[in-house]
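cron nightly-structures :: item 1 of 1
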Amino acid sequence: MTSVAASPAASSASSSGSSSGSTSGLHGIAYSPYSGNIADNNVGCKTADQVSADFANIDSSYNLVRIYGTDCNQVENVLSQAKSKNLKIFAGVFDITQVESEIATIIAAANGDWSHFHTINIGNELVNSGAATVGAVTAAISTARTLLSAAGYTGHVVTVDTFVAIKANPALCQASDYAAANAHPYFDGGVTSSGAGSWVVEQMEAVSSACGGKNTVITETGWPWSGDANGQAVASVADQKTAVSSIKSTVSDNLIMFTAFNDMWKAPGYKSVEQSWGMYGNSASS
């Protein structure tokens, strides 16, 4: 198995912030707190009980859960589950124009106890999507660091973007405590499910190299079980199983799988795959 974090270059790289703890041994899974189905126009927020029911179905091989924002009371609800199951949280600020208020929500949920927070992420794929400039993202990171430090947080602070955007804009990883990259082999179009793991490692190494040897975490990767083929990438139940097995057996740590449950709250999207990445199928509350 391969871990970019274990490479000499990555191990010797210094971070841009004074964070404690390590990313070594990180095995995470992404989670969204939304209920309902967009086709029925009934998308809403999961209750604390529904979040609890979801977490009962997530197996114990994961030691971290990634969330993306602060709406739906998700920080407090997921933190409660993290505490009961001894998980760390990779929390997120979704809207960097509201970084102060979203950080305030995270600080309030922590209530002075940061022991279950591994990373605070500022923005997801904003540069790749054209939603924000590199300068706006790095400024938001700086603001978040100041607010979090004042609240006693000493963990990691990063921004997440695609591996393509990070390689093209290394200032994103320079402003982060480690390089945090989303990398989905399905979207490459030239990768079969059996080659998913080796492809992910290639992107980890490329990001680390572009970031001067910095420790790299793949913050999203997985495979859809339904939808249209994308070149050599086939979206099927069997191919999802093959791809997930390939990724997990090839990448030893520094990995967050996408995603726990199907995202029926999303539109079908590109190649009609956006709803069907769930590794545990549909949530009971979807």
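cron nightly-structures :: done
DSSP finds ten helices and ten strands in the chain.
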